[in-house]
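task queued by scheduler; priority normal; single chain, no ligands, no partner chains; default sampling; output format set to structure tokens
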Amino acid sequence: MSSNVAATVDKARSRLPRSEQLSGPQKLMILVLSMTLYGVGDIVANVVPEVQVGPLELGVSYFAFIAVVLAALLSPFWVALGAPLGELVFSDMLLGDFGGLSELEGFLQTALAIYVAGCLVRNPLNRVQVALAPVVMVLVDKVSGGIVDILKVVIGIDPESLEEADGLLGAFLLAEGLDIVVTVVFSGILFGALPALWLTPRLYGKIEPIMGLRPRDPHDPPRLTGPSGMRFWPIALLALLAAGAVALFATWEEFVGREEGLSTLGSFEPDFVDQFGEAWMWVAGAVALTVGLGLFVVVAALRARRSRDAETPAASTAEDDEASF
């Protein structure tokens, strides 16, 4: 199978021109596609029931394979922006559970995790890289979130979490560690690495030409860089610090009783699931999928039309030159 995939990829690369930068329509298509698929996946993950085993809740936090497969094949940066944005727009808002400014914490952590995982896959046919990427995504997301949760308890603005652990900091730390392990197993492996290993080689070289993109070249993969070529890790640290500051501030406002504080600015919480039942989740998923894919098709059609219009004058000029010669 790998030889067939390699042949398909080489054919796609030969047909498409090399471009160092993505065009505006290409960026928009990647953004919309990742928003739609990851947002709908988050809705489906909410439908999947959790199983309580002692103090542990066994369930799917999110489908990591969706973001990882897209980031492994397309631009990791635009997938990293689109996927958490889709969770906010197509999942939280359609379900009526958008927390406002406090949602910035999850957005930054998820975006950073997806970007790192996508750049980790230098060769989409490398099974080790593809399998490791979802685990890395979950670890970056959950470890950064876990550190913030520990700080909340240590500072004293989240006494409820400590009470759930019988007031013992050691028990709370153990619970946080077990939560990370469970998420890695379910979201990182069962609903991350395994589906990604099956999907990535089958989509490699097939989804990129639809957007006019060359398939990822293992000899020239995307690299971890910040905006304008800046070093990545200082920017990543600033993003995590910003996410932590937002989370701590939101918890502090809740602790002191500010129900309409700055962290809830822009919140939208009618909770449609409570009003209309769990069937609303399927309605929201269908709406998100229809709107997102419809917008993707429109942008793809406009990009293809613009490409044809750009090629027509060039072809006419070449014919005129031949005729005059």
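post-processing summary
- The mean pLDDT is 85.
- The longest helix spans residues 279-324.
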